[in-house]
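>> received
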Amino acid sequence: MKKYNIQFENLGALVEISTFAPENKVAEYHAIIHIEPRDEIFPGQYSRLCKAEEMLMQRPEFQGTDIIFKRYFVSDSTNQRPLMKNCDSAGVSIIQQPPLDGSKIAVWLYFAKGMDVKNLNDCVVASHDGYNHIYKMGMYSTEGDSAAQTEKLLTEYEDVLAKFNASLADNCVRTWFFVRDVDTQYAGMVKARRENFIQQGLTEKTHYIASTGIGGLPSDTKSLIQLGTYALTGHRPEQIKYLYAPEYLNPTYEYGVTFERGTSVEFGDRAEIYISGTASIDNKGNVLYIGDIEKQTFRMLENVNALLKEAKSGFEDVVQIIVYLRDINDYKIVNKIFSERYPDIPRVITLAPVCRPTWLIEMECVAIAERK
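>> returned
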């Protein structure tokens, strides 16, 4: 694992990079690009970000790579999305979760070398060694309440998976639910997801799916829910392990939600670990340290560390982090903690309310652990 930064000073762009690139095997890269505000309106910032991405991909170490997906974090999705190019790709997600470094936009890129990447059935499919990694981002609906939109999106996604001879229960590894006005609309999403999962054979006695359900605004003002997904085919069931860390966290079904705390997928030379949205909670489901952002941050990190440890991994294997804050004024405290503890891990800190009003912070991450 190698982690380093690239500064494009003329563009005011900082690129934080994690690389997992074993010799003669599939290489994976995660990058987060940050842009200096420079008192510039959105088109200027977006143009500089695009140029930084272009320059990044032209570097010798990234020759022959393919971008698999991008997630843009923007400050005003309704007005900014129409100004962005190639925004309708199945591998692109644009969500209003403003970066808290003062800029209007940041992007998380996932790209790889040694995979065959193509668009198929309105998905991005990255294939290697008999595996198909299937990404479908930016799905949304505009009709009905949050429950109706969630049900429609999941049903449509299940139809997409069927084209790959796949199913939600057997093949979906990770989901992201971005919820407009999470304090009022989250309950409808949770209800519809739970009911849909029961129909798909996903219950507390089987398993759920790693997920983040978080505040975020789709660009269409009628859309209450935006969905992003990652599925896998070509694997054996025993390659997937669900993470619980019961000394630190309780099963999510105990408080009425249906997602796994984390999922680890073993690929022989590596394990890919997807940690769901995780906050300051104990193993009874209680929110800890209400009103104290510093203590909530440390407890959240303890919980994530316990999940990683269960997957025979640790923060040294984490390739990217997304942090979600309810209060913009907590940014400096949280950024200082992460800068001191994990200065080398690419991260973005955004404004995005968590699903319980008393949670001030939540994070998710991806880790790639070497296996020998």
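>> The mean pLDDT is 97.
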